Amino acid sequence: MSYRSSNVACVSVPGVNLSVLDYLWDAGECMTVVDARHILRWRIYPTEVGVAARLGPAEFATLGRLMYFPAGIEIQTDVARHGDRTRVVMCQFDPDWFGEVSPTPLRWDDEKIASYLDMKNPEIARAMQRLGMEALSPGFASSTLVESLATTIAVELSRDLLGKDKDPRVRTRDGELPRTHLERIYGYIDCFDNSSPSIDDIAKLCGISSVHLRRAFKNTTGQTVHQYVENVRLKKAMALLAETDLPLKEVSHRLGFADASTFSSAFKKSTGKTPSGYRLSIPRRI
Q: Is the distance from CB of 58 to CB of 112 less than 8 angstroms?
């Protein structure tokens, strides 16, 4: 391996190793590795990285935020286009433990290889996000919570990869989305902690066309998908500005903006205040 990583936090329970890792990539670097364990990675930030990867003999594919690397399969990254600094939540599952949780063996599916590197499963993403929070700030009965979330992830991963127990295609009634499916869409959008999903991604999650999604979402909520996504991102920006002392460059980076200037313009357009002005207006606890 030619990247550099540092372990920010680590928790181990029977059959599962949980880590929060910081990675540093330089332009031109690459890696090849094989692990005996099943690995799930969920990238906390940034939105995108300049590294593609492939599993086994497959073609190179862009790395998404939620990635699955099967046990015993070679992982190879392409040469990094530019330098990256990323923070990742990583779960390593012992195959024997995984087999006890999910007795049906995971089969290698050539047609699904690309999807392993960019999984669209909001339940797993939320669980990985919660595991990362627990690793960084463990609370009461932390090990029990980690074991519970890891088991949930293993079951959801098996369902996803085996194509079983999938939710049926979203059906609309009177042109509106059912509440259960609307909540699923909300959860999916929210799990993009530092970025924004595309209309096509959300429509694919629902099994409907982008046009159908736009119309049904507007009929149900009174706002467009884009407006809702931007409102969610604005709330996250306000929380980061109020609750942290992160530089504006880091806040904009975490939220998926191209640079601090673009973030500042978008924030002022929505709130009437600059990010710095908003931060100064928040009462500080003594």
A: no
Q: Is residue 44 part of a domain?
A: yes
Rounded distance, CA 281 to CA 284, Å? 9
The pTM assigned to this predicted structure is 0.65
Main-chain dihedrals φ then ψ at residue 125, nearest 5 degrees = -60, -45
143 lies in the same domain as 276: no
Is 135 found in the same domain as 51? yes
Q: Cα–Cα distance between 190 and 236 in angstroms, integer? A: 10
* 3-state secondary structure (DSSP) of residue 275: helix
Per-residue pLDDT of 227-273, as tens digits, reads 998 888 888 889 889 888 888 988 887 787 878 898 999 999 999 99
CA distance 99 to 113: 21
How many other CB atoms are there within 10 angstroms of residue 131's CB atom?
A: 26
Whether residue 215 sits in one domain with residue 275: no
Hey, what are 193's tokens? 């902690």
Tell me, yes or no, whether 38 and 133 share the same domain: yes
Range of the domain at 214: 179-222
Note whether 135 and 20 are same-domain residues.
yes
Interval 156-204: pLDDT, tens: 888 887 764 445 455 666 788 888 778 878 877 876 655 677 888 788 7
